[in-house]
Write a structure and sequence with these properties.
Radius of gyration of chain A: 26 Å
Strand content of chain A: 5-15%
Helix content of chain A: 25-40%
CATH architecture of chain A: 2-Layer Sandwich
Number of strands of chain B: 0
CATH topology of one domain in chain B: Formate dehydrogenase/DMSO reductase fold
Oligomer: heterodimer
Order of helices and strands of chain A: HEHEEHEEHEEHHEHEH
Low-confidence stretches of chain B: 1-7, 428-452
Strand content of chain B: under 5%
Distance between the termini of chain B: 28 Å
Radius of gyration of chain B: 23 Å
Number of helices of chain B: 17
Mean pLDDT of chain B: 88
Number of strands of chain A: 9
Largest sheet of chain B: none
Largest interface: A-B, 72 and 73 residues
Strand order of the largest sheet of chain A: 8-1-9
Number of helices of chain A: 8
Structural class of chain A: alpha+beta
Shape of chain B: globular
């Protein structure tokens, strides 16, 4: 019998379909924010030893992004540990530690390789070349970014007809105009410093070395979750001021990389394998039916 | 003969109209306990769905910033898709391995799979906050090609099409469209092969969604092998559902009597044990993988905690025990044991998927901060499941799903197959399907005849 034209075309068609859909997922396009090392991402260094808990940053943030402006004279908010919300991109929390009260600002960490960006099926989440992770309105509202964020930052307007995803965007619109993020500009205690991530790490290390014993010798965000745009210095161990210290140093997109690599392989090999089995069983039947004829 | 759906081929739109009008009439008893319960739930659920789309997600669902995904994803989508796994497994056995014996269940499994994707994967729309943007990953309003969810979304769409092609000859037979049926059934094998490939990837892909929730999922459940575990569990989840639906269809009179073929009915008693055997093996493989993962993870100290007991309940009580029950039922030809095992397996899969999305997800939160579905979420969930069952019943009562195709369709099939020198894959008249040896013999005769 041999291969007739129809079978050949069928096989060819399947091969092409497999090859093209595999091409969509070529490994080199897999990494979110690839080549992070040779780009100068901007970031913010938060020195929690300097923060006085005035919440000026919260107010500046709300004003810069048309969010409800909080009453910063109200200190009762410190009684409970707060998370960012769909109405607040940045919150300051108070912690009682061995070295007294410590205030720490919480907002998007702007990871070098963000989990949320690699999670987004429509690239509504994007890592900009300046460093910010931003959200766009082509979002479907699947909230996979919220599942994938190690810091639980993205917040969704659950009660809106056309909900938006709210999170700090490192004042991307201001960055493009050459301005600093609003919170950094508003900080009266110089607890926040804006600059290139590389420069900020140098500055943080300088502070650790020059103030013997003042800081714990660790920059939170230098390696956490593959490195983040926000960097923190602290006088007390970071778990005492509300940070997860068990995140590891692996960038989050790495966790799904293995699975995604296997996709083109399965797409190509599975149909070929199944087609082979099908051809074999058909051949067996054919032989037995020809045998029956004789 | 009860297997002719239409006496004549439909020649004009008028014929079609008259035919459809007749078919739209309800068949069977209208007042049944199931209908009395499900009808109000469906109507009420529809109202709530409308309310959800007008007032936003938060008005109906309890999903929050701590728990972005509630039971609509955790139960409807994850469990619904796992339960649809029977479609690709039986399609593989019947169309790729050409195991004639299981022809009586393949359409039922594929129809169940197709409807599961339409309704349960379709329920994603409910959960999407900005649902009108659902077309974005497809029309290319920016493609997140490095997203697992992008892959899953595309595979859902493509697999739905593949499954529709697989089941479409049944609709063509119902409408008496001979030439269209011929064309559609020529696509089956291709659709099945592509369908199995897509299923492999998105069944595991649903598990891969949780890979980035590394610190949020309890270490006993989190492993880099979640995708593999999801894939293997979809095999026995799907087959257990086939056992469940088959038992209800063939052993209880829920469908129109004319729509159940007596020979299919007879062959079912035998098929049940084969399905049980397959389930037992798949469950064993899964159990073995779980043990390997546990040993590699070195988390056994956690077994002696509340979450550890819960984990053991799942893995021992709802994987290992049904595995043994299936094996026991097969060995001693005990159908009750197989059925109980199937139900236990289904419960196990439901609990497993709920664990990943809700229970083991942020297990560290205090109880009052944990997610519990609102009553509205539950009603909508039930409404979707009931609607799917109604549609399933409607189709089974009209098209050849649990009965043989009309005579003309079987002849068409035989003709096509013998052209390639093959034994006909469609069931034949007067052949007891359970009697495998006799069948081959008869088939050979038939083929010989047609070849001359």
């Amino acid at each position: 019998m041999g291969i007739n034209r129809r079978i050949f075309l069928k096989g060819l068609g399947m091969g092409i379909a497999g090859a093209t859909s595999g091409g969509l997922l070529l490994p080199k396009r897999l990494m979110a924010g690839e080549g992070a090392a040779n780009k100068e991402f901007m970031g913010v260094l938060v020195d929690t030893t300097r923060c006085v808990g005035c919440r000026s940053c919260e107010m500046a943030c709300a004003e810069a992004h048309n969010l409800p402006v909080p009453d910063i004279s109200d200190t009762s908010v410190f009684e409970k540990k707060r998370s960012t919300s769909e109405r607040q991109w940045s919150v300051v929390n108070r912690f009682q530690t061995a070295k007294g009260e410590v205030f720490a600002k919480k907002q998007c960490m702007h990871c070098n390789q963000p989990g949320c960006v690699s999670a987004c099926p429509v690239k509504a989440m994007e890592k900009r070349k300046e460093g910010p992770v931003t959200w766009d309105t082509n979002c479907m509202g699947c909230r996979y970014c919220m599942v994938s964020c190690p810091f639980d930052i993205p917040q969704f307007e659950h009660h809106s007809f056309a909900p938006k995803l709210q999170k700090c965007n490192l004042c991307w619109e201001r960055l493009q105009k050459g301005e600093k993020p609003a919170c950094v500009e508003a900080c009266p205690a110089e607890a926040l410093a804006f600059g290139t991530r590389r420069g900020l790490i140098e500055e943080a290390n300088r502070r650790i070395y020059q103030n013997d014993g003042k800081y714990v010798p660790h920059i939170y965000g230098e390696h956490e979750a593959g490195g983040t745009g926000y960097l923190y210095l602290s006088a007390v161990p970071f778990e005492q001021i509300g940070f997860r210290t068990d995140l590891g140093t692996t960038a989050y997109p790495e966790y799904t990389k293995g699975f995604l690599y296997s996709v083109p392989v399965v797409l190509l090999l599975w149909p070929a394998f199944l087609g082979g089995i099908s051809a074999l069983t058909k051949r067996k039947e054919k032989i037995s039916s020809e045998g029956g004829k004789r | 003969m009860n297997n002719t759906t239409t006496t004549d081929e439909i020649k004009s739109f008028k014929d079609l109209f008259i035919f459809l009008r007749g078919e739209l009439k309800p068949k069977g008893k209208i007042v049944t306990p199931f209908n009395l319960i499900s009808a109000p739930v469906i109507i009420f659920g529809a109202v709530l769905i409308l309310y959800r789309f007008i007032m936003g997600l938060g008005a109906v669902a309890n999903s929050s910033s701590e728990y972005p995904w509630g039971i609509w994803i955790g139960f409807i989508v994850l469990v619904g898709v796992a339960f649809a796994g029977g479609a690709y497994v039986t399609a593989f056995v019947v169309y790729v391995l050409r195991a004639e014996k299981y022809h009586s269940i393949v359409r039922m499994a594929v129809l169940n799979g197709f409807l599961a994707y339409v309704f349960y994967a379709g329920a994603i729309l409910l959960d999407l906050g900005r649902w009108w943007n659902i077309v974005n990953p497809i029309i290319g309003n920016k493609l997140g090609v490095n997203s697992v969810l992008f892959l899953v979304a595309w595979h859902f769409l493509l697999y739905m099409i593949a499954q529709f092609i697989e089941i479409s000859p049944a609709f063509a037979e119902w409408l008496g469209l001979k030439r269209i049926r011929k064309f559609l059934s020529s696509l089956t094998l291709g659709a099945v092969i592509i369908g199995i490939t897509l299923s492999t990837l998105h069944q595991s892909g649903l598990g891969a969604l949780f890979l980035m929730a590394k610190w949020k999922i309890h270490p006993l459940w989190y492993t880099e092998f979640i995708p593999l575990l999801f894939f293997v569990s979809s095999v026995f989840a799907g087959l257990s559902v086939v056992i469940f639906i088959g038992t209800i269809s063939y052993n209880y009179h829920v469908f129109d009597k004319d729509r159940i073929d007596p020979e299919y009915r007879q062959s079912w008693d035998d098929i049940l044990f084969d399905l049980g055997k397959a389930c037992s093996i798949a469950l064993f493989v899964y159990f073995f993988l779980q043990v390997l993962v546990l040993i590699h993870g070195r988390h056994w100290a956690l077994l002696n905690t509340a979450m550890g007991y819960w984990y053991l309940t799942e893995v021992m009580g709802l994987v290992w025990i049904p595995c043994l029950l299936f094996a026991w039922g097969v060995k001693y030809r005990n159908p009750a044991s197989i059925r109980i095992a199937a139900v236990l397996t289904m419960i196990g899969v439901i609990i497993n998927r709920i664990n990943y999305s809700i229970v083991a997800y942020k297990w560290y939160l205090p109880l009052q901060e944990k997610y519990l579905p609102s009553w509205m979420e539950v009603v909508i969930t039930l409404a979707i499941v009931f609607t799917m069952i109604w549609v399933f019943r409607w189709i089974v009562n009209r098209t050849p799903i649990l009965c043989k195709p009309p005579v003309w369709a079987m002849e068409q099939e035989r003709e096509e197959e013998s052209k390639e020198g093959l034994l006909a894959l469609s069931p034949q008249l007067g052949v007891t399907l359970a009697d495998g040896g006799k069948l081959i013999e008869q088939k050979n005769k038939v083929n010989t005849r047609t070849l001359r």
